[in-house]
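Q: I have 157 residues here and want to know how they pack in 3D. Can you give me a structure?
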Amino acid sequence: MLSQASGERPLRIRAVTEADLPHIVRLDAEAFPADPYPFFVLRQLLTAFPDFLFVVDDGKDLRGYVLSTPPHDAQSWILSLGITPDLRRKGLGRQLLAKMLAHLRAQGTHSVWLSVEPGNDSAVALYRSLGFVPDPGGPRSDYFGPGEHRLLMTLAL
């Protein structure tokens, strides 16, 4: 059970279910309004990696999620970490990511990679606080297409 203010529904991190897909689509659009994943991409990711998607559930709706790849040659990628705007900066992202990192470690992952928009200072700070280290080459220009720069970060487990 995650900590919540008095009077609010208790939050819990749990594995994803098939029935969660429409809620994840909505959540992703709330968390990333400028560039959410298309429905078909989330459908394929859920089907391909069901054991690598955790959600924050308040008993009525989903409030956050983290998605990774399974390990390949002992390496995994965090593909997305999203929290509803009203619950940001309350430790949910940290707790979700910590759960995923423990899961990846148990699956034999030795290194975890992620990409982040270089100007997203709060996300970069979160990842650094968990031990992720920025790629020494700095942000990659046009990594996700023209004007879509990303900072790559890695964590040794």
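Q: Anything worth noting?
A: The chain has one domain: 12-156. The chain is about 30% helix and 25% strand.
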